Amino acid sequence: MTQPTDTLSIRQMCDAFGVTARTLRFYETKELLFPLRDGTRRHFTKQDRARLTLILRGKRFGFSLEEIRQLLNMYDRGGSNAAQLLRTLAIGRDRLEQMQAQRDELGLAIADLQTQLAEGQSALDAFAQAAPAAAE
């Protein structure tokens, strides 16, 4: 079987998306990608490329692979995909809340660390100023 011109090899997919071959094979085993097979060679279609784009976006947003798989499987080429969109929005809103809470916690941790560092520097400065006076 010769590779159709509208498909990409595993190497081309890796280069195009900045992922490893191991990642692509992993996504295939998790039923997220369905490349055409020619023996041991994989040929990724336009649909695979679109799915990988969505997988990588979902991962960046913190969606689980299972959530991504379910959302991708809800796609209906001939349908309105309203159910898929509703579910995507629900998961996205939940994830946004989680990310905002993490950001708020991180902001508090940063402020606390800045305070502790400033206090530590003040104590160190006090030691440095006391040292010459003690030497006299």
List the helices and strands and how they pair.
Blueprint (H helix, E strand, L loop, with lengths): L9 H8 L3 H9 L6 E3 L2 E3 L2 H15 L4 H9 L8 H54 L1
Antiparallel strand pairs: 1-2
Helix pairs in contact: 3-4
Summarize the structure.
The chain has helices spanning 10-17, 21-29, 46-60, 65-73, 82-135; strands at residues 36-38, 41-43. With 136 residues, the protein is mainly α.
Structure description:
With 136 residues, the protein is mostly helical. The chain folds into two domains: 1-63, Multidrug-efflux Transporter Regulator, Chain: A, Domain 2 (Orthogonal Bundle), CATH 1.10.1660.10; 74-131. It contains five helices and two strands. The protein starts with 9 loop residues before the first helix and ends with a helix. The relative contact order is 0.08.
Characteristic key phrases:
mainly alpha, 136 residues, 5 helices, 2 strands, Multidrug-efflux Transporter Regulator, Chain: A, Domain 2
Q: Work out the helix count.
A: 5
Mean pLDDT: 92
Query: How would the global form be characterised?
Result: elongated
Strand composition percent: under 5%
CATH architecture of the largest domain: Orthogonal Bundle
Poorly predicted runs are: none
Count of beta strands: 2
**Structure classification:** mainly alpha
Tally of individual domains: 2
